[in-house]
């Protein structure tokens, strides 16, 4: 997992072509003009999902992990908390859904805070629970860029 401010994106240049594309997209996109929904960047190799939502209570939420795609999550407006842990040999509570590329876990986790202007990169071994709140719910606008692993 990587957690940082977008102005430090240059530090991660060269990790993979797909991550470079995702970070460039974040830095060059005017999100105030982008409609909510899915946006193609490089066919199914790199695409963005722009979301607007209220953060959720942590109770009864499950953690997720992916096998085909890396998540690059950038908070455009607002602040949210995310649960994170490393996937080792845990068994998913809900088995892998190949079509939608996720499996769900019920695991112990640490909490990170992702504020406006920050991004988190989650690799397949990063089990994560985004969109959560501690305290009062808040409005968030976020882009999740999916980077296909074999094209990374």
From TrEMBL:
Domain of life: Bacteria
Gene3D superfamilies, A to Z: YhcH/YjgK/YiaL (2.60.120.370)
SUPFAM superfamilies associated with the record: Clavaminate synthase-like
Annotated GO CC locations: cytosol
Pfam families (UniProt xref): DUF386
Protein name: DUF386 domain-containing protein
Source organism per UniProt: Gelidibacter salicanalis
